[in-house]
Amino acid sequence: MANFQKCTIVSPSNETEVQWVLFQVIKCKAAIVWEAGKPFSLEEVEVSPPKEHEIRVKIIATGVCRTDDHATSPSFKEGLFPVILGHEGAGIVESIGPGVTRFKPGDKVIPLYLPQCGQCKFCLSPKTNLCERISKAKTPISDQDLMLDGTSRFMCKGKQIYHFMGTSTFSEYTVVVESSLAKIDPAAPLDKVCLTGCGFSTGYGAAINTAKVEPGSTCAVFGLGGVGLSAIMGCKAAGASRIFGIDINKSKFALAKELGATDCLSPEDFKNPIQEVIAEMTDGGVDFAIECIGNIKVMKAALCCTTVGWGTCVIVGVAVGEEGFVVSPLDLIMGRKINATFFGGWKGVDSVPNLVLDYMAGKFSLDALVSYTLPFDKINEAFDLMRQGKSNRTVLVY
Ligand code: PAD
Ligand code: ZN
Ligand code: ZN
């Protein structure tokens, strides 16, 4: 009887029933990247039962974020392969491991790539949303390639497959640690609120929590993908009076304006560098600039388009394989500030359930960010749409 437990299980058709179940390996569909730079390969994987303080989740929907694309790039040196990527998912708890108290089968949940253990010095401080479980990672997206016991819960063709960011939502079933999971409202539509698992929360929080955009201020958001458009929503919610949306892809401008941008600019339309153009239009520079691309040159431009005295630049974009950029001490002495955000500054276990409720109460739109909803099997098409600049977010449903 050692492997049998009485528990509520969720069937593939999402019905719940109480059964004595043998905690067994589940065979399901997943998208594996076998080598850097290679497309996603749809495979049948074996997903082990959750161990102590772990939860096995049936993923219902997952967004596709640029960070997953960075992680497949050969220039991302810390990447481990074969891997199951995906970090913007929503699902239903299928089974729980020993010691789990906050969740039960059937709960609707969002996996969190930035955990909140609730006990470490970072979790206990209101100054950061970092958690010790991830604080020693070389890069924010290199950690949690395996579970805490140093093993994987995924096998395919006899090989161990790496996890990604502790979430691996490109698998129909995934296993996550209890502190990497937020419980959300049972009525939440999972094919929309999955965006609170990354893109929306990051951009919106970059404006509200990290930049701390003020009423009546001027803002510039560089990059109008899912993250940048969410930053525009954040600037608007914070009461900014003028919001520049900057992108080289002008097809992004209409939605940016709908969501709150007052001026949309393409750097390619001007002879002068975009930071000079913005400074001229704003009497010396904006109060807040937010970089949502992951391009070192644009990060520098974002800093330089802020006003001396108090201009704040927030970096959101992840630049992989890049050296960094030089900041002149004079910029800092003249009062410009530079900051960056990890998951929009939110402590996920506490905040994501509230963001979901705010969405359900109509405080902001996630629907506008979803350019396409596709079946999971079309994952490579979803990435092509992003690379071609044709989508802000594609949501894949299982
Ligand atoms: P995306 O690729 O959907 O959007 C990027 C946008 O930038 C596109 O609209 C591009 O056209 C535009 N763009 C590209 N180059 C330029 C340029 N030189 N000048 C102006 N515009 C340009 O990406 P996304 O919205 O999914 O993600 C944006 C970045 O944020 C990306 O680097 C991702 O890795 C990072 C990210 N960071 C966090 C975090 O916690 N810090 C979380 C989520 C995503
Ligand atoms: Zn992301
Ligand atoms: Zn912690």
From TrEMBL:
Residues 52-184 form the Alcohol dehydrogenase-like N-terminal domain. Its cofactor is Zn(2+). GO terms for biological process: alcohol catabolic process; ethanol metabolic process; fatty acid omega-oxidation; formaldehyde catabolic process; quinone metabolic process; retinol metabolic process. GO terms for molecular function: aldose reductase (NADPH) activity; all-trans retinal binding; all-trans-retinol dehydrogenase (NAD+) activity; benzaldehyde dehydrogenase (NAD+) activity; NAD binding; quinone reductase (NADPH) activity; retinol binding; S-(hydroxymethyl)glutathione dehydrogenase [NAD(P)+] activity. GO terms for cellular component: cytosol; nucleoplasm. Residues 226-345 form the Alcohol dehydrogenase-like C-terminal domain. InterPro entries: ADH-like_C, ADH-like_N, ADH_Zn_CS, GroES-like_sf, NAD(P)-bd_dom_sf. It is found in: Cytoplasm. It holds the Pfam family ADH_zinc_N. Keywords: Acetylation, Cytoplasm, Metal-binding, NAD, Oxidoreductase, Zinc. The keyword Hydrolase does not apply. This is Alcohol dehydrogenase 4 (class II), pi polypeptide. It comes from Podarcis muralis.
